[in-house]
Structures are given as C-alpha cells and as structure tokens.
Amino acid sequence: MPVFPSGFVWGAATAAYQIEGAVHEGGRGENIWDRFCRQPGRIRDGSSGEVACDHYRRYAEDIALMGDLGVGAYRFSIAWPRLFPAGKGPLNRQGLDFYDRLVDGLCEAGITPFATLYYWDLPQELQARGGWTNRDTIPRFVDYACAAAERLGDRVQDFILMNEISVAAWRGHATGIHAPGIADARAFLAATHHMNLAQGEAIRAMRGESSRWRLGSALNLMPVDPADDSIGAADAADLVDAFWNGSVIDPLIHGRYPEIVAGRFQPFVQEDDMERIRQKVDFIGLNHYSRAYARQDPDQPLGVGMVAPPDDRPTTAMGWRIDGGGFRETLMRLKEDYGNPPVHVTENGAAFDDIVDADGRISDPARIAFLEEYLSALGQAIEAGCDVRSYFVWSLMDNFEWAEGYTKRFGLVHVDYATQKRTPKDSFGWYARLTREGRF
Ligand code: IFM
After folding, report:
1. CA 400 to ligand 1 centroid distance, Å
2. Active-site residue, 275 included
C-alpha cells in the first residue's frame, strides 16, 4: 500500500472550454475552438463546448461536489477570451467577475485554487493574425497573464502558465486534429517556440509584480517507445521524444532544445530567446496518461507519427495503454534528468465507457483499478525520492474531450448532458475515501 507524505494534497482538475459552456455570456469573445468545432468533420460527434457542463452557471453546485469529494485543491483554467474578448484591449470586467465568484467560492469551501492561464482557448482574433505562429502573440499573452494574476492573485497563489504546450503544438499545428487545425512542420516549430517564449516572458513579468505567486507549467510528459524492432522506429521514437517531451522541458529547465531537433527550431530563435525561456519555476506540473509508440510516417508533416500500443495490456476508451510503470518512469526522469523539481501531478485519469444502471448508479471498477495502479506507481516514485507534492485527478466531471466531443468520459462525476444532472460514480466514493484517509 503506498504511503503518501503528510501534507500531500489531493485535488481534481478541469479546463474552461471543456466545462464552462455559456460561450456567448458575459461578453466573452470567440476562441479557436468555437471556430474549429463549427467546421464539419472536426469533432467526432459534431458537438462543441457551447453548453458543455454549464459550469459557468452551476459552479456553486460543482464546488459543493468538490467539498463532498474532500479535495484540498482544485485546478481550473481561466478563459483568455472572457477577460480579453479580442485577445487584447480593455479588460472585460464581466468575464473577470465569473472567476472572482469561482475563486471566492473555492476559498469559502477551504479548497485551494490552482489557476491555469492558457488552456488552448486562444482568442480567435489573435488566430486571425497567425496565432502562436506569430511572435506578436507573445506580448498579448504576457499582458493577459499579468492582468489575470493581478486581479485574482490576492487569493490565488499557484499559477500554471501553460497547459501542455507540446499537445497544443503537435495536435493543433502538426497533425491538425485540434484547433486551429493546421498540419505544417514550420507552424509546429514556430508555435512551440512562441508558446515556450510566451511562458518565459510571462513568468518574468509576473515575478516582477509579486513574489507571493508560485509559478509553473503543466507538461504532458510520457515515455516514447519504438512501435517495432526496426531502426526506423527507434529513430522515430527519439524524434517524437525530442519534440513531445524535450522541446518543452529542456528549454524551460536547461535553456536549450534537444540536440536532434535544435537546428529545426533555429529559424524561429532570436538572440536571448533561450535565456528568456529558461526560468526558475516553483514547480513542474505533470500531466500523464500513458506511454507512446512511434514510427516513421512520411504522410505526417514531421515525418513521424504515434501509433496504437501493442495489445498485450488493456487500454482505456481512448485506446491508451494502461501502464503505471510509464508514470513511475516519467517521474524518475524528472528526478534524474531535471534536478528533482517539486512536482504537482496536475492531471492523471482515464476514460471508460461508463454505464448508468437501472438504479442510476455508475459502477466504474476499471477507473478505480486504473487509479490504484497509477497511484501505486506514484507512491513508489515518492519512495524513490521524487519530490511530488500533489495529485489532481482528471477529471472532476465528464466533459468536452476536444476532437472526441462528448464521446469520452473522464469524470469522477457523471454528467447527463441532456439534463445537466451530476451523479457521482463509484470512483468518486473511492477517491473521497483516499482524500480523507490518505491511503487506499
Ligand atoms: O481532456 C484532456 C485535457 O484537456 C488535456 N490533457 C489530457 C486530457 C485527456 O485527454
């Protein structure tokens, strides 16, 4: 049975576009996902985040659920286009009011707020000028980040600057399966570099405003294995590892891109950029789900791709291999290669095809087994010396799973999208015991 350190924080996570809905409320501007979802064929079930979980209106009910779950912290994201509908210009007071109410509600419930500043919802007006491929988006992000922190930072101490830069760059600009739907190697390289730099610049600016804030980044890190025994697959695994993992963490911690891809970023790197990206962060946020398998793929802009895992182990409804060993390996890599930074596990969880039974109960033993396997691995990593401070389950409730629409359910709380009724699943009860007893 894993032993977690005293003071270890148990939390739950969500993101604005995936749960808030109310996209036309409070003066919010259009974001790249609003636009992307309207393009036929982009989202598996043709849906969008327009209504989602209606959390914008039901946030008080959702905070009460967090209270029942017994979490000590809640990770949410602030929607940039609620604060700055066009990405810049005057602050939209109504947009800020929502987060004021949310943060006040969390504080009253004794739940520590962790705020993510960029969770993929770039204002569409900035995309019209090139979005993350355009260096001019960087100062816009810095202004937004500082404004959000200035207004909420009297109650929020922990800010996550960016969520999963590599996913926003890879799926948004290389494979094109996420907004803004671009499939182009140059766009991928530019977007990665500019998001890295925007994060570095915002951290610098925020440090100048207050020493009270704890600043970090949520990185999606995972081991990358070759899909088969060929040399081509081994090379592909090195390249995918360098793009997916190395191109976000190496610049942040070491101030450089991994050697095998550094030359490809060169056209976008200006003098001093790497020093500006390298920042002393207070924590690394780790989002981890599975392990990846890579092979050469000439049809992909980067010449490499990820494929389905071998079928010797079970997978989740996303087709992702269930493999707690990969989680432990990732944590150990943070310890060995990146100086053992304080880590918040800012996301981990699984989608399964949950069934509501005749009594309205959602029995989800596969999710409980998943959490037991991954939390055992986490316990082992902590015992081996990894400095992990908290764990945020993904997700508090079922929500809009990007290109998969509402077809994948990650929540501990089931959401009936027709009625917005929330029903805690069995895993909710399991996690509630863990938050109270600190062990399972
Ligand atoms: O739902 C997503 C989240 O938005 C980003 N991290 C991975 C999760 C599961 O795919």
Report:
1. 9
2. no
CA of 349 to the centre of ligand 1 (A): 9
Euclidean distance between CA atoms 109 and 145, whole angstroms: 25
The per-residue pLDDT for 120 is 98
Q: Is the peptide bond before 6 cis (omega within 30 degrees of 0)?
A: no
What is 9-437's CATH number? 3.20.20.80
Scored b (16 or more CB within 10 A) or e, 164-185 reads: bbbbbbbbbbbbbebbbbbbee
Q: Which atom of ligand 1 is nearest to the CA of 119?
A: 4
Tell whether ligand 1 has an atom less than 6 A from the beta carbon of residue 347.
yes
The pLDDT-based confidence of 17 (bands split at 50, 70, 90) is very high
Closest C-alpha to ligand 1, atom 10:
401
Which of the listed residues 222, 286, 402 should we mutate to test ligand 1's pocket, taking the one with most ligand atoms within 8 A of CB? 402
Q: Is 401 in the pocket of ligand 1 (CB under 6 A)?
A: yes
Residue 334 and residue 284 in contact, taking contact as beta carbons nearer than 8 Å: yes
**What is the residue with the minimal CA distance to atom 2 of ligand 1?**
401
- Which has the closest alpha carbon to 116: 154, 84, 148? 148
Gap from CA of 270 to ligand 1 centroid (Å): 32
d(CA 101, CA 107): 10
Domain boundaries, the chain: 9-437
Q: Return phi, psi of residue 277, to 5°.
A: -75, -40
| pLDDT tens, residue by residue, 190-217 | 999 999 999 999 999 999 999 999 999 9
Closest CA to 422 of 39, 37, 55, 7: 55
User: Within 10 A of 402 (CB to CB), how many other CB atoms are there?
Assistant: 23
The pLDDT assigned to 1 comes to: 75
347 is catalytic: yes
Q: Could you tell me if the CB of 238 is within 6 A of ligand 1?
A: no
3-class secondary-structure state, position 389:
strand
What pLDDT is recorded for position 155? 98
- Residue that is written with structure tokens 């009460």 in the block: 64
Q: How many C-beta atoms surround the C-beta of residue 383 within 10 A?
A: 11
- Cα(184)–Cα(175) distance, rounded to whole angstroms? 8
Residue type, 381: A
Predicted local confidence at residue 242, as pLDDT: 98
Terminal-residue alpha carbon distance, the chain: 7
Contact 389, 8 (CB under 8 A): yes
Strands (DSSP E) contained in 191-246 are 214-220, 224-226
Cβ of residue 287 lying under 6 Å from some atom of ligand 1? yes
Cβ atoms of residues 363 and 426 within 8 Å: yes
Banded model confidence at residue 11, pLDDT cuts 50, 70, 90: very high
